Amino acid sequence: MTTYSRHSGAERLTLIIMALCEQNLVTRSQLTVHFRVAERTIFRDLKKLQEMGLIQHKEGEVYTRTPATNLIMQTGILNTFADFTDVSKLLPLNQADFWKKMPVRVEQKRVTILGPESEHSVQVDLRKHFAQLENAIVNHRCCRIYYKDKTRRINPCRLSCLQGVWYLAATESHKLKTFTLSRIDWLDVLRDTFIPDATIENLLARQNTPWWSAEQTMVTLSVASAAAPYFCRRNLLPEQQIVLTHDDGSLTLTSTIAHQNQLFPIIRYWLPHLRIIEPVTWQRVLEEEIKNVLVL
Fold this sequence. Notes:
Elements: H1 9-23, E1 25-27, H2 28-35, H3 39-51, E2 55-59, E3 62-65, H4 67-84, H5 102-108, H6 122-138, E4 141-147, E5 151-162, E6 165-172, E7 175-180, E8 184-193, H7 198-206, E9 217-223, H8 228-233, E10 241-245, E11 251-257, H9 260-270, E12 274-278, H10 280-295
Protein name: WYL domain-containing protein
Organism: Budvicia aquatica
InterPro entries: CBASS_pafABC_assoc_protein, DeoR_HTH, WCX_dom, WH-like_DNA-bd_sf, WH_DNA-bd_sf, WYL_dom
């Protein structure tokens, strides 16, 4: 444990807990030396932590952490995981006992959170590719993949999961592309390395979507009044912005799109309540796709 300079009482309490998290137990004499304070000061600190239920007196001058301390450690990890999986905004993490009550919630099924269905092969795909791709991204290693009946040489940049589907952002011939993990038939991590493109790295940092692209299209849509409450309740489209609420309850909104596949499946789901106003060519493409399906 590092020798500390003078700290306030609150700082010492925090550092004692951190020390217990690292080494499971501490002694009064050890803390006295490291904090350079009188033993009676450390005794008062330890007594406060005992009253808080965070440490327990084992024997002599030895103190150990309690299950409550373990919970603090786990809560930090779980909160980090919640941020990593982007579910923090869905959970009441400001409640101090949220994680503590989780085992009971799971057992009694009083609260359920239903996520999107994943691809059937997701675990197989992750076992085959995830570790290799993550290592290649970290170490800037070039890769060779067989994808859509074609051998490709790529520079991997980022892994992302959306709606239960894993995607890989990578450059191919200096062009940023999106690859679906489940469609990668085989993968080789090459010895060759590449220098990350700062422009692409900044683009990936700004765009929270697997449809990464330097070319963005601003799309204007009309939403019928029957569907309007759903679009007011939450953003159903990428970078959705409500521009105008009409007297009849319908909406005009905009969405910034990198690829038509981001938008068209959503519109098809909400037909006949959604329509593309601009660009007009996108509405025509969508109508043609629907006509072809109806003909079949």
